[in-house]
Amino acid sequence: MFVHIFDQRFIIFTWFGNDRMMHDSPKRAVRCVRLATEDAPALSSLESRCFALPWTEQAFAEAFAGKTFHAFGIRETASPLSPRELAGYIAVYHTPDEVEILNIAVREDRRRHGYGRLLMATALQDAKETGILRGVLEVRISNAPAIHLYESFGFRQAGKRRGYYQDTGEDALIYTLDMGQTRTNP
Q1: Catalytic amino acids?
Q2: What's the angle, vertex CA 40, arms to CA 37 and CA 41, rounded to 5?
């Protein structure tokens, strides 16, 4: 993998075949960009394909209106995707000392290609650069791939919320991260 950082608005990662995270071995350039209110329709579209209880376009627009909401998205270069369509995104809340990972979603046909890892690394690096000291998130107890991703960045289980998810009544695991020990590129 090669990393190309052009400016603070986006990072491009280029993947070369036989990476153990990939099921296939394409050569693909990927952009991770900071998203804004005008991306609410694309966020809502991807969200509805990935989650049983998705955020609406209006919910994203309202979140962007606040000062604590941040989102990053992946758009592939040289792709048949429309310019506004996303292959993946991560949404977070920033407070002065904490970043809360709200959602991370990757299109089904792009999973296991390192996109979740790129999104997480970007969000954590952004938080770290603003002086944030702690990360927190909730994850479905059954979501083993997400748990593995979070633990690879140094998140540790700190608790459990019983019956947290309204759609299934499933428990959520609470994970926290000491930002002083963050591995932004595990």
Answers
A1: 138, 150
A2: 140
